[in-house]
Specification:
Layout (H helix, E strand, L loop, with lengths): L1 E7 L6 H6 L2 H5 L3 E8 L6 H7 L3 E4 L4 H9 L6 E4 L4 E3 L3 H10 L8 E8 L4 H17 L8 E4 H6 L10 H9 L4 E10 L7 H12 L11
Parallel strand pairs: 1-2, 1-4, 2-3, 6-8
Antiparallel strand pairs: 4-7, 5-8
């Protein structure tokens, strides 16, 4: 049903948590395969991926290229792009099964998860609120909210392109607001320093105005 794509680069600390959130879905047959697209890790990333039964693709140090390379060999009709710092909350597979079962071939749609952080402080809650507001207002989710998309739609849109750090925004813009659904389930991320909220808002506005992504890559 789903091929999960995880781009890695020295991600040994993050991968077990990400993989754990996929176990129930794999047992239920929702997840058919996990593809780890690696950018030359020198830690235990590949040992962990191999031990978990993931298919390993050796790619370049460019996250867009990593995801494109993995998607090219995916066997399933649906793709789920998931960052290594992201773990999907318990029960996500039931909602995804429902979403896929209601999919209409003539009107394909993609989906993202609600953004969450594993921290419990007020700053984490404010960061979650800002991220989810950005998704609601601009249909511009972060990459660590995951992306579930029919492979047919992914290919029709041209997939991921090599765009520095703007690849996630570029693809969801091509998907478009009308074809993008926000699921109730959360993508819970390991807390890490985020770029400023002002920069994030500026990028969201520029994308809403359809400024070419290649002009935003160094902002």
């Amino acid at each position: 049903m789903i091929s999960v794509v995880v781009p890695t680069d020295n991600s040994e600390r993050l991968l077990p948590r990400c993989f754990d959130s996929l176990i129930t879905a794999a047992v239920r047959g929702v997840v058919r395969e996990v593809i780890v697209s690696d950018a030359g890790s020198t830690d235990a990333t590949l040992l962990i991926a191999d031990g978990a039964g993931a298919h390993i693709v050796h790619s370049r140090k460019n996250r867009s290229a990593q995801m494109a390379d993995a998607a090219a060999i995916a066997k399933s009709d649906w793709l789920l792009f998931l960052h290594p710092q992201t773990a999907l909350e318990t029960g996500w597979e039931a909602e995804v099964e429902s979403f896929i079962s209601q999919a209409v071939m003539e009107r394909p749609r993609a989906a993202v998860f609600r953004f969450a952080l594993e921290d419990f402080g007020g700053e984490a809650r404010r960061a979650e609120a800002k991220a989810n507001l950005r998704t609601a207002l601009f249909a511009l989710p972060y990459g660590d909210q995951g992306l579930l998309i029919p492979k047919r739609l992914y290919l029709k849109l041209g997939g991921y392109r090599a765009l520095c750090d703007m690849e996630d925004a570029d693809l969801v813009r091509r998907i478009g607001r009308r074809r993008l659904v926000t699921l109730r389930s959360r993508a819970v991320n390991v807390a890490r320093p985020h770029k400023s909220a002002l920069r994030g808002l500026a990028l969201a506005l520029l994308h809403a105005l359809r400024v070419p992504s290649r002009l935003l890559a160094n902002l």
